[in-house]
Amino acid sequence: MKANISKEVKLQFLDDYFVSTKEAINILQISKQSFYSLVNRNKIQRISKSGVVLYFKDEIMERLNSQEDLRYKYRPFDYRK
Question: What is the tens place of the pLDDT at every residue in 29-47?
Answer without folding.
Answer: 999 999 999 999 999 999 9
